[in-house]
């Protein structure tokens, strides 16, 4: 019975994260995209070089964090949190890039919304 109680506690962060992901998706799709008419933009091939370089560096860093996490860390949380921070940095980078290159489209709203979700994910992982 003690194991059952422990697994229920372990599932709570997962349920909260899934709920927040659904809420964030609905805000992005239903409100920002449909109500405000702001569509997310794809990353273009003609991005400024500085953003390409930083994005590529963060991608390599993410793969390294995954590899190092699985090789050297015991718990799932310590494996995932560094990757979540890198995901946050990539999302913020794309939001800042959209803000600096095309303010009129307001596509950066989507990136900043997902960055907020990532912050909440990191907090949930840290606590739970």
Outline the structure in words.
The chain has one domain. Helix 1 packs antiparallel against helix 4 (108-127), helix 2 runs antiparallel to helix 3 (76-101) and helix 3 (76-101) runs antiparallel to helix 4 (108-127). It is built from 4 helices and no strands. It is mostly helical and 128 residues long. The model has no long low-confidence stretch (mean pLDDT 85). The chain is 81% helix and 0% strand.
Radius of gyration: 17 Å
> What is the helix content?
over 70%
Low-confidence stretches: none
- Which structural class matches the secondary elements? mainly alpha
Number of helices: 4
Hey, roughly how much beta strand do the residues contain? Answer: under 5%
- Average of per-residue pLDDT values: 85
Number of strands: 0
Q: Which overall shape is indicated by the principal axes computed on the Cα atoms? A: flat
Q: Separation of termini?
A: 21 Å
Largest sheet: none
H/E series: HHHH
Produce the secondary structure layout:
Blueprint: H1 2-35, H2 49-72, H3 76-101, H4 108-127
Provide tags for this entry.
mainly alpha; transmembrane; membrane; DUF4181 domain-containing protein; 4 helices; single chain; 0% strand; transmembrane helix
Q: Would you kindly provide a brief summary of this structure?
A:
The chain has helices spanning 2-35, 49-72, 76-101, 108-127. The protein is mostly helical and 128 residues long.
